[in-house]
Design a protein that fits this description.
The complex is a heterotrimer of chains A (332), B (333) and C (355). Chain A is of the alpha/beta class and 332 residues long. Chain A contains twelve helices and twelve strands. Chain A has two domains: 168 residues, 3-Layer(aba) Sandwich (Rossmann fold); 131 residues, Rossmann fold, CATH 3.40.50. Helix content of chain A is 37%, strand content 18%. Chain C has three domains: 83 residues, Beta Barrel (OB fold (Dihydrolipoamide Acetyltransferase, E2P)); 59 residues, Dihydrolipoamide Transferase (Irregular), CATH 4.10.320.10; 169 residues, 2-Layer Sandwich (Chloramphenicol Acetyltransferase), CATH 3.30.559.10. Classes of the chains: A alpha/beta (332), B alpha/beta (333), C alpha+beta (355).
């Protein structure tokens, strides 16, 4: 069975179907995930395959949904919560930040919260300010949460299965533009797991180390193909999970390239990607730098509506090409 | 120190039941007094929220619960924890920041949980435990456990969105959960008169299509009866119940409370409605326990609490070295 | 009913309270009080509070003094109560003191970080260029920056010319010194030594004194103040002082050091030493000496045989003061073609006389 080029929606659905089959304690809950099949069609036919108990439609009630999932997770279940737009996690923040993230620690280890919160994240659909944010940095700043940002269908399936296995709360940020895009890699039909906290070296090149997550991985890859023609070779590292964050491949790569560029869609100010820079410049890795660190991030504005404004607000392939070219050309 | 095994049943059902109910209430009060003393001596860190005056609610509720029934509790949660069967020594050790405390010094007074007794934890966030209890009930329903989940919260929590969302979800899914509002008259300094346009907070049940019952929260027998009925309803698959137990806290919200929002007369009046004295009166009248037997329960409670404090004092202070390793549960290979 | 003694203490009332002032005592010895009655008033840094009786009882004694500040836990009054009140006096300091992170953190023995010898001044360079500069002892200021905003790039410092330059220069320097000593080996010469007191406040002061005194002697004995190569008498007196340099040793020449105030000479020597260590001795100081001085007084070396450098007629060395009797060994080597042994002994005596 070769040539399984799935979309990320399909890959995620496969992962959830496998988990629902493998583990009786897994169930999904969220708004419109049943008959409707999910706002982005991710749950699809799961409602028909696994029934309304395990693929559970909820009222519009994010705090209630997440809180209920926390309680169920404390009591032997492994809930997967779908939040239609990651922006709505703001409605459920107490349960995510004050409850799920801290219970294991605060009670001294006697309880744990095996909970996966999937949320559709990111801009590009013209949904404007309240339906387009990239909020992963919020969660990465809360000890006790793991934060996953899949970048392709293959990655999404393996990471989601690992997230469901994990005994801790995992925030799983799915970029909505990736849902409908077929991946370039085959997605194996059966179960496979990609461990959380292990970065992936997507490609290697001698000139510049780029760290990017989620949708920015495919944008950097597109940019890299262009830059190859100019003789500029990028190394691309996808941390996959921004918490915990595996920096070793970044340090290793910098020994060879000496140039670092970080790319994220979220606004630059206070963003997660700055942590990558901080870790580099506060480590031995600093001495390998032969160029100032280049940073490409979203503008410090709410995501705007009009297509040209929306595109301008977050890094696009051309921005990546331009920045990478500049760094390599200027810093020999 | 011996911890009596949990006893289910009506507090007035027998001499044994009456002794147990009295002992539980006395243990809670002595524990709170001990905590107050330790705090007053500067031996305890942080703050504390005492439930003196509210002992009938946890004692009565937990006599209607099995060991595997679950509870979520509040910042004023020592009583719930004790009534559900927690180890007093480990509770004190936690308050003293010892390694052998329930949370290894990581949680303190507001975060004690005890898996073995079905206690999913106190909570520092007002209303934080309510959706969690709903989740525990969902787990029970999905796994056919036959257990119920009880969420204790105060009157203040009923105005949090968490209560509304949790109550609604539990109602539409007919979950085996019992919402217990311990209405002690004040959310910190805000009286229920200021915070509600209702005489009976249990009337809120109507809005979710669930029964709401208000009873005297200082009457351990009435508390038990209301809870017992709600448990039966939950186990029969009929869904949640909202119970309001009207009670009063004798002490301030926390230690730094000057009681500026209420009068000494009001506090004194409620002291005449002491749930422990009230219960002693009833059991003497019914001939269940005599004065000596009543004194014996208090002596036992006192001995257990003093023993717990003395033992907890010997514990090792919690060690910062283990902090980073405590954040996540290890992923088993 | 049995009776219990219960000490009502100065209670902790807030997270930060450590002591409180006893404002008023509302009861008298012998008073009967009920649980909840106010016993005394306390003022703290944050709040004023009434302290209530924890139980029914009789006031037995009042220990607290009104107006006094009392530590948390100190007994204010004694009650006799009918019921035993929870009381835990462990007579121990608050356990939180040990529990909280007052445990002295293990003192991390930080590795001694030697500040980079490279002068950073205002040179802009990428981090890796700085690392390489430090490793190879390259002065970043000596590199022509080609990066944006005049920044030294990795490529600039990796340039083979730059990279090899330092080591090559060191080796060349050593070779040059060796070659010049080779040349003077066949010159007829004698070395004389004697002990002398030579205590100074600093190396630079001592060196200055030596340099100036020797210059004065040369000035009075013009036959020594010539170039042995050209045999031309010098129009100035030049004394080379051997010192440490970035590339090994340097021999900057101090011209007419005896004609300037000593303090000025001290400063001159001091700044020259700094320049030498940075590898930047001014060009005009690289020639024109007829004598050299090797001042080892700040080392542990007791004596060195002074070697004549090409074109010099005399060479002096000063060892470190002997630990036992405090004198330094001063040695003088002279070119016998221009000076005989007894004359040399006389010069050495003259020098010692001034020290």
């Amino acid at each position: 069975m070769s040539d399984r080029k799935l979309t990320m929606s399909e890959a995620l659905r496969e992962a959830m179907a496998i988990a629902l089959e493998e583990r009786p304690e897994v169930f999904i809950l969220g708004e419109d995930i049943g008959i409707y099949g999910g706002a982005f069609g991710v749950t699809g036919d799961l409602y028909h395959r696994f029934g309304k108990e395990r693929v559970r439609d909820t009222p519009i009630s994010e705090l209630g949904i997440v809180g209920t999932a926390v309680g169920a997770a404390l009591s032997g279940m492994r809930p997967i919560v779908e939040i239609q737009f990651s922006d709505f996690t703001a409605q459920a923040m107490d349960q995510i930040v004050n409850q799920a993230a801290k219970i294991h620690f605060m009670v001294g280890g006697g309880l744990h919260v095996p909970l996966v919160l999937r949320a559709a994240s990111g801009s590009g659909t013209g949904a404007a300010g309240q339906h387009s944010q990239s909020l992963e940095g919020w969660f990465a700043n809360v000890p006790g949460l793991k934060v996953v940002m899949p970048s392709s269908p293959y990655e999404a399936k393996g990471l989601l299965l690992a997230a469901i296995d994990d005994p801790n709360p995992v925030i799983f940020m799915e970029h909505k533009l990736l849902y409908k895009v077929a991946g370039t890699e085959d997605v194996p039909e059966g179960a496979y797991r990609i461990p959380l906290g292990v970065s992936r070296v997507v490609r290697e090149g001698k000139d510049l180390t780029v760290v990017a997550t989620g949708i920015m991985v495919s944008r950097v890859l597109a940019a890299a193909a262009e830059l190859d023609k100019e003789g500029i070779a990028l190394t691309l590292i996808d941390p996959r999970t921004i918490s915990p964050l595996d920096m070793d491949p970044v340090y290793e790569s910098l020994e060879k390239t000496g140039r670092l560029m970080v790319v994220q869609e979220a606004p630059e100010h206070g963003g997660f990607i700055n942590e990558v820079i901080a870790k580099v410049v506060t480590s031995q890795s600093m001495g390998h730098l032969i160029a100032p660190v280049a940073r490409l991030a979203g503008m410090n504005v709410p995501i705007p509506y009009a297509p040209q404004l929306e595109k301008a607000a977050v890094p696009q392939v051309d921005d990546i090409i331009k920045k990478a070219r500049e760094v390599v050309a200027n810093w020999r | 120190m011996t911890i009596p095994p949990l006893l289910m049943g009506h507090p007035l059902a027998s001499k044994e039941h009456a002794s147990y109910a009295l002992l539980t209430m006395s243990r809670i009060r002595k524990f709170e007094e001990a905590v107050e003393d330790l705090f007053g001596r500067g031996m305890m860190h942080g703050t504390m929220h005492l439930s003196i005056g509210q002992e009938a609610s946890p004692a009565g509720v937990c006599m209607a619960l099995n060991l595997n029934d679950q509870i979520t509790s509040t910042h004023r949660g020592h009583g719930h924890c004790i009534a559900k069967g927690a180890n007093l020594m480990r509770m004190v050790a936690e308050l003293l920041g010892k390694e052998n405390g329930y949370c290894g010094g990581r949680g303190g007074s507001m975060h004690i949980a005890d898996v073995e007794t079905g206690n999913l934890g106190a909570n520092g966030i007002v209303g934080g435990g309510i959706p969690i209890a709903v989740g525990a009930a969902l787990s029970s329903q999905l796994m056919n456990k036959g257990t119920v989940a009880v969420s204790f919260f105060g009157d203040g929590a009923m105005n949090e969105g968490a209560f509304h969302e949790a109550a609604n979800l539990a109602a539409v899914w007919k979950l085996p959960v019992i919402f217990i509002c311990e209405n002690n008259g004040y959310g910190m300094s805000s009286s229920t008169e200021l915070a509600f346009k209702l005489d009976k907070l249990s009337d809120r049940g109507l809005g979710y299509g669930i029964p709401g019952v208000t009873v005297d929260g200082n009457d351990v027998a009435a508390v038990y009866e209301a809870t017992e009925a709600a448990v039966a309803r939950a186990k029969a698959g009929e869904g949640p119940t909202l119970l309001e137990f009207v009670t009063y806290r004798w002490k301030g919200h926390s230690r730094s409370d000057k009681n500026l929002y209420r009068t000494k007369e009001e506090i004194d009046e409620w002291k005449t409605k002491d749930p422990i004295l009230h219960f002693e009166h009833v059991i003497k009248e019914r001939g269940l326990l005599n004065d000596e037997e009543i004194a014996e329960q208090h002596r036992l409670a006192q001995e257990q609490v003093i023993g717990a404090v003395n033992e907890a004092m010997k514990g090792k202070p919690a060690d910062p070295a283990g902090l980073l390793d405590s954040v996540f549960k290890k992923v088993s290979a | 009913m049995s009776a219990f003694d219960y000490a009502v203490i100065m209670p902790k009332m807030s997270m930060t309270m450590e002591e409180g002032e006893l404002l008023a005592v509302r009861v008298n010895v012998g008073d009967s009080v009920k649980s909840g009655d106010v016993l005394f008033d306390v003022a703290t840094d944050k709040i004023d509070m009434e302290v209530e009786s924890p139980a029914d009882g009789v006031v037995k004694a009042i220990m607290g003094q009104i107006g006094s500040t009392m530590l948390v836990g100190a007994p204010v009054l004694m009650l006799e109560t009918a019921t035993q009140v929870m009381s835990f006096d462990f007579n121990t300091p608050a356990p939180e003191v040990e529990a909280v992170v007052e445990v002295p953190a293990p003192v991390a023995v930080a590795p001694v970080v030697v500040a980079p010898v490279v002068s950073l001044e205002s040179v802009k360079a990428v981090p890796k260029a700085r690392v390489i500069a430090r490793e190879r002892g390259i002065d970043l200021a000596s590199i022509t920056p080609t990066g944006p905003d005049n920044t030294v790039t990795f490529e600039d410092i990796s340039n083979p010319q730059v990279a090899g330059a330092h080591d090559a220069r060191k080796a060349a320097n050593r070779k040059m010194v060796a070659a010049s000593i080779e040349k003077t080996r066949t010159i007829p010469q004698i070395t004389l030594s004697r002990f002398s007191s030579h205590t100074t406040a600093s190396l630079d002061q001592g060196s200055a004194h030596l340099v100036a005194t020797w210059a004065r002697i040369l000035r009075r004995n013009t036959h020594l103040n010539l170039s042995t190569i050209t045999e031309d008498l010098r129009t100035h007196v030049g004394v080379a002082l051997i010192m440490e340099s970035k590339y090994g040793l340097a021999m900057p020449v101090f011209k007419d050091p005896d004609l300037m105030p000593v303090a000025q000479l001290v400063e001159w020597i001091k700044s020259t030493r700094q320049q030498s260590r940075a590898g930047k001795v001014p060009l005009e100081m690289l020639s024109g000496a007829t004598a050299s001085i090797f001042d080892l007084s700040d080392t542990k070396i007791s004596a060195a045989i002074p070697l004549l450098l090409p074109s010099h007629t005399t060479a002096l060395s000063v060892g470190a003061p002997n630990a036992a009797f405090g004198q330094s060994e001063i040695s003088l080597t002279v070119d016998l073609r221009y000076c005989d042994s007894l004359e040399a002994a006389n010069f050495l005596d003259q020098l010692v006389a001034t020290l």
